[in-house]
């Protein structure tokens, strides 16, 4: 058996559940029998800055850090963060993007500009992509913070981890009062068709 490694890059801004998503993916991969490792970069996450998590799983993983242009899948919880990390997507990979704009502090304070065409740049990048309004889906289910579970559900359509493993991870890592909404959000993402 060869050691096929799946590299998943998760990006967004502080407070969107990027670290939790990385933990959930790692836990689900381990429940499926894979070796899995994760690493996070928090940056200025306390102030709404960029947060990045890398998850790698396969038969045997020696490092949680993926190659610079090695992402099989990018999960972007915010449009600009998706556009920023698009160059890290490997040939044949897919980017799944929440169609939400969160202005960085540099834009808020007038030191930067948020590109108005983020979505169009991703759509026209030549990369396989799925852009969805995960925030609205999560809100309809009762909790906007379940965006991460919606996006992971969409991703689960493309990875070799059984649904039972995802449910097990959510039940183990999500606070009890939020388990049901996160399970529903994951299911909504899993059933999402563009």
Offer a concise description of the structure.
This protein has helices at residues 18-31, 79-85, 105-108, 118-123, 134-140, 147-156, 163-173, 179-190, and strands at residues 6-13, 35-41, 50-58, 71-76, 89-98, 128-132. With 194 residues, the chain is α/β, with parallel strands linked by helices. It has one domain (6-190): 3-Layer(aba) Sandwich (Pyruvate-ferredoxin Oxidoreductase, domain 3).
Task: Kindly describe this structure.
There is one protein chain. The chain has 194 residues and is of the alpha/beta class. It has helices at 18-31, 79-85, 105-108, 118-123, 134-140, 147-156, 163-173, 179-190; strands at residues 6-13, 35-41, 50-58, 71-76, 89-98, 128-132. It is globular and about 50 Å long.
**Low-pLDDT ranges:** none
Rg measurement, Å: 16 Å
The number of E-state strands comes to 6
Shape: globular
> N-to-C SSE series?
EHEEEHEHHEHHHH
Calculate the terminal CA-CA distance, rounded to whole Å. 34 Å
The main pleated sheet reads as: 6 strands, mixed
Order of the strands making up the biggest sheet: 2-3-1-4-5-6
Residue-averaged pLDDT? 91
Question: What is the name of the CATH topology?
Answer: Pyruvate-ferredoxin Oxidoreductase, domain 3
- Percent helix among the residues? 25-40%
Number of helices: 8
Label the CATH architecture. 3-Layer(aba) Sandwich
Q: Beta-strand percentage?
A: 15-25%
Structural class: alpha/beta
Return the domain count.
Answer: 1
In the CATH hierarchy, what is the superfamily? Answer: Pyruvate-ferredoxin oxidoreductase, PFOR, domain III
């Amino acid at each position: 058996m060869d050691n096929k490694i799946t590299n998943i890059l998760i990006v967004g801004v502080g407070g969107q559940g990027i670290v939790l998503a990385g933990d959930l993916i790692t836990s689900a991969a381990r429940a499926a029998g894979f070796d899995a490792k994760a690493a996070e970069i928090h940056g200025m996450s306390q102030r709404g800055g960029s947060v990045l998590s890398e998850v790698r799983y396969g038969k045997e993983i020696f490092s949680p850090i993926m190659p610079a242009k090695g992402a099989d899948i990018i999960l972007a919880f915010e449009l600009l963060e998706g556009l920023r990390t698009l160059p890290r997507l490997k040939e044949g990979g897919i980017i799944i993007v929440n169609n939400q704009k969160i202005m960085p502090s540099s834009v808020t304070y007038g030191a930067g500009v948020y590109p108005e065409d983020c979505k169009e740049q991703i759509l026209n990048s030549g990369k396989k992509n799925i852009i969805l309004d995960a925030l609205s889906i999560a809100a309809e289910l009762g909790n906007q913070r379940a965006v991460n579970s919606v996006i992971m559900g969409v991703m689960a359509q493309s990875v070799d981890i059984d649904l039972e493993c995802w449910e097990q991870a959510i039940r183990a890592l999500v606070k009890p009062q939020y388990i049901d909404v996160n399970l529903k959000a994951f299911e909504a993402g899993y059933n999402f068709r563009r």
